[in-house]
Amino acid sequence: MRHSNSGRKLSRTPAHRKALLHNLAKALLIHGKIRTTEMKAKELRRVVEPLITLAKRNDLHARRQAYRVLNDHALVKRLFDEIGPVFAGVPGGYTRVLKLAMPRKGDNAPMAIIELSRVAEPAADDKPARGKQTAAPQVAPAGETKGKAADESAPADALEAKPASSGTPKAEKEPGQDESSAA
Amino acid sequence: MAVQQNKKSRSRKGMRRSHDHVAVPAVIYCSCGEPTLPHSVCPNCGAYKGRQVLAKNENE
Ligand SMILES: [Zn+2]
Fold first, then answer.
1. Which of A100, A102, A140 has its CB closest to that of B47?
2. How many CB atoms lie within 10 A of CB A75?
3. pTM of the model
4. How far apart are the CA of B14 and the nearest CA of chain A, in angstroms?
5. Cα distance between residue B26 and residue B48, in whole Å
6. What's the pLDDT tens digit per position in A118-155?
7. Any domain includes B11
8. How many domains does chain B have?
9. Which residues constitute the domain of residue B59?
10. A161: how many CB neighbours lie within 10 A of its CB?
11. Which ipTM score applies to this complex?
12. I want to staple B42 with a disulfide (CB 3.0 to 4.6 A). Which of A68, A175, B22, B36 is the partner?
């Protein structure tokens, strides 16, 4: 029976597995998007998404719980101050796993990209930063999304970061759906 | 040790192996025109579901 046998062992001892997943979680939070094997990416969701939930709770106990995983005060601060607010009001689905068609050379391991489903925009109150943010993901239908972002940013400039971030989820809604179908 | 009594004929060998074959991969055609696997990022253009995931030179 496979009762209570959730999770992947990844052919590692418990300590090795814990260290691996903690390292991957740090890498993902630092870079926002990392490339690893598909199985590691899928297992990493179980570590990173609870961290973001902690960041949304945003109290001292949550910070200490996150520190147990990250072991890095600067990164905990970044998680709580920059990444957590981006996901305010988002009910889960903080990460996205995209499979790559080409397996790894050498051991033919299926590879994937795991990324945070929303991009943290630095400060988001000045126009240049927002322009950079929309240009950075290099969206394929660039004309469409850029036009949308520009339309919204012009009147919404006086407001807060909220209207600006509402532009990006719109552009990212399609990939959001594929995650649920791929899972 | 168990030892076979008779040699397997070429015919028997072929019959046994008639079910041995490599699985044919499911192939779809990306919007860039190149063949790729379904539910995966295209290795040619780096796009998935209309979104550029990889920079073009990043996926090699
Ligand atoms: Zn393509």
1. A140
2. 18
3. 0.68
4. 30
5. 16
6. 986 655 444 443 334 444 444 444 444 444 444 444 44
7. no
8. 1
9. 22-60
10. 15
11. 0.77
12. B36
